[in-house]
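Minutes, project check-in

Agenda point 3 was the complex the collaborators sent over. CS summarized: three entities, 522 residues total, and the question is how they sit relative to each other. Sequences were read into the notes so everyone works from the same version.
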Amino acid sequence: MSQPIRVAIVTVSDGVASGARQDRGGPACEEALAASRIPHTVVSRETIADQPDRIEGIVRTLADSGEVDLVVLTGGTGLSPRDRTPEAVRRTLDFEAPGLAERMRAETGRDFPAAYLSRQVAGVRGRTLVLALPGSPKGASDCLRVVADLLPHAIELARGEKPPHPEPAGGQKT
Amino acid sequence: MSQPIRVAIVTVSDGVASGARQDRGGPACEEALAASRIPHTVVSRETIADQPDRIEGIVRTLADSGEVDLVVLTGGTGLSPRDRTPEAVRRTLDFEAPGLAERMRAETGRDFPAAYLSRQVAGVRGRTLVLALPGSPKGASDCLRVVADLLPHAIELARGEKPPHPEPAGGQKT
Amino acid sequence: MSQPIRVAIVTVSDGVASGARQDRGGPACEEALAASRIPHTVVSRETIADQPDRIEGIVRTLADSGEVDLVVLTGGTGLSPRDRTPEAVRRTLDFEAPGLAERMRAETGRDFPAAYLSRQVAGVRGRTLVLALPGSPKGASDCLRVVADLLPHAIELARGEKPPHPEPAGGQKT
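CS then shared the predicted structure for the full assembly.
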């Protein structure tokens, strides 16, 4: 992948959107990406309330702009009545990549079983990878860390590019 | 959580509903809950045949009664032509909580690989958590045991209550 | 199970269908099945392009023929724009068996994390089990190996037959 990954970060939170709370999830995602060795640049930061239509709209706009390779949402993946990020995000996707969400839950749930209650979603819209992560700073950054190594390859595949790593004889392609 | 969890248990089985077989799945669920340290009270026990409309109806009725926090179904999660509990339950849910089902399969499948064939479903309707578990007594009770510790927190979230455990700085929220 | 499992293998690949590439995924599936101890016979081998309608059609035809117990597809489960096998297969299924796909990803992803990007699908149409596996020879054969031991039981269940292994007192049924 010759170009750094262009990342949009979207904090989904009534409290943050209304100004009642400080945004901690978004910065935690940025720090987790910075701590990874993935070449990337954060091209957009936004905060929206837990409103499905708003969530759906912002994912569509970002993915369809042609200027974003990865949309990371943080917030709204729990079980409470206001948590509707997964359904909203899912409506925007061409397809899900369930293994990324499974891996997040399996890895973060090992030390923190409540992580199994998170309803992370990963998938592709057009040529953009979309990840919906928990709202807590630690939850979001742990999940990003778990899949960070897979992101460059995932985004190349979503873009329709050839994977750069040579496939050995019998090597596994996804 | 100040109040004990109000549990409804539903055995889904043609054989039990017709009187041909004894209900062992329902009692196994009750024993598994009793063995856990979760404060709860079983408010309802029912047995129905493997009929999707019946299954769907009973979940709706129980969840919408306002008197049940947790619906536990046992039976109909296999791969045979009569096993249609997952689809029926899914139609009643506002959303699924896939991590609970993933965890059940991963944990119970470690010692008993055939557990990976079970199509458990977990999700929320209104403010009620719904779990669809295997029909075998051991399968159902093993699955309940695997998620028991998560149930009080899951139900509080579904009710829209604040989680009681304090969130540490950077603590993971689901 | 008294009869060997009747297996149809379908290679999904634009390159193979056009003759530009050799089919390696299909033979890898055959070898993985041969290496397992599952009594089976390969009754059909086909290659089709990555066209959703074609994929959907061939699964329906094979499953509805009454002459195939297991359809194994290899290819089209990645994240690239042409990878549409999961969606096409899903439209043919009566229900999914998510645990089989979860197990494939968890097991093959342990040594090869990129396996988490694969969008395997497992499910049942009528009385036929359908598996959609990655296109790479190693990916496909690793996934088959991971679930091989479960296939005879899964197919018996899908056929509506009684499981042959006696259920011990408290034994887990799926």
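Noted in discussion: The beta strands of chain A are 5-12, 40-48, 70-74, 95-96, 121-125, 128-133.
Follow-up: revisit at the next meeting once the mutant set is ready.
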